[in-house]
Amino acid sequence: MVFISLINLTAISHCYSKSFMMSSTIKLILIGVTLCSLSHWTTSEVFTAIVDLEKLLYTEGEIIKTIEKYIEVEEKRLQEIKSKLKDEYGRLHQVATADSQSFLENPINAFLLVKRLSTDWKLAESLMLKSTGKAMIENITQSREDLKFPEDEDLTGAAEALLRLQDTYKLDTSTLARGQITGTKPSHELTANDCFELGRQSYNNGDHYHTILWMQEALDRVDEETNKTVDKADILEYLAFSTYMQGNTRHALKLTNDLLELVPHHPRAAGNRAYYEDAIKNAAHMKRGDDGDVQLGGDVNYSESSRADTELSEREQYEQLCRAESSTVDLDDQRYLFCDYFSNGHPYYILQPVKREIVFKAPKIYIFHDVVSNKEIEIVKYLAQPRLKRATVQNAKSGELEYASYRISKSAWLKNEEHPVVWKISQRVEDLTGLTVSTAEELQVVNYGIGGHYEPHFDFARREEKNAFQSLGTGNRIATWLLLCKLIL
């Protein structure tokens, strides 16, 4: 499970700002920070937290058992149909058709023929329709309250998370489709249908860049599949339109022609072809020079490197830090960065100081190592897990709590009096920072899901956010202490 615990320290008057970070004995590679409180529970959103995804594994196991039982019952039923109906009917029909006139002259044979196609057929029909599948499906989807099923929103969220990881870590589409991600165990390869679904989700979100990447991967894979998992015509239609939306009308026309060769009477392709042809003619007219020559660009081979650079530099720096590619520390400031054993002048830590790493000068960012034990971490996770709910952010204008696509996680809050371990963690924060926790918010435990993230933001309220923490009555935040509890990607 991916957990981050944090305490936001506040004060009535805030004259300075510090940032503190505490790590357990487990190494981590991603840091998240928290802004606001929770909201009401929803039945979906399993993609926002690993703890809910783990529940899906149990659900999948129960479904597999149900399918196995269904196959066993159906095989028995089909064998009964084969032995009692097909074989017997086939034998009698073969005798009857060998000499139908002589056969039907026998009144008994005539009677049995009528009986077989009336009463016996009704019995056969009943046996053929006697499938246990519907009852089994209803049992597992409606009667099992212990099972958790994802919804359409979860599929969209899982797809967006994978695309977010692809962008942030600059992962190659074909490599991802092979199930290869550095630092993780290889997964099964994606089918053409899997790639198509990622492309379709991108298309539904208006993301034509990723639509092209994944539809092209689906197109490459469907040609290699013996048992086709998706209709090639569907791939070509999505790919053509997204290619057009990315500005490559000529290649969109080529893909549409390929589609029409495959499905000559496709309901939309002919109209799309005419539209693309007109667009090319109009572009040619606009670009025609004095000499009458026309220069139009050729086909574009879309790849991860061809994405338009429209993001802010802050976003680029953020993603570089996630990839461990960039250091924002100036050489002049590096002399202020060091490691030491730190006690903060507290009697308890004089003989057993903690390991401190100063990683940034302004704002001050410290990393304290081996401050919390693995056992304490497990207790915090145990206390928080039943309370996890979709995390929210505070709208800067309205002050209301709301869901946001830039914060994908679930959170829970723990009070000091709930368990001695929670109180001890708060006390250590107070001892090592020199700041009182009497005005601090409760310990927040955050569980991130697939591609879970919280984009760069300020933990404290800015000047224009005058009522951000008014309900707390403790003033603005002046420091954030994060406890990173498990390795995450």
Automatic annotation (TrEMBL):
This is Prolyl 4-hydroxylase subunit alpha-1. GO terms for cellular component: endoplasmic reticulum. The lineage of its organism: Eukaryota, Metazoa, Ecdysozoa, Arthropoda, Chelicerata. Residues 363-489 form the Prolyl 4-hydroxylase alpha subunit domain. It comes from Caerostris extrusa. One of its GO terms (molecular function) is L-ascorbic acid binding. Its cofactor is L-ascorbate. Keywords: Dioxygenase, Iron, Metal-binding, Oxidoreductase, Vitamin C. The keyword Transferase does not apply.
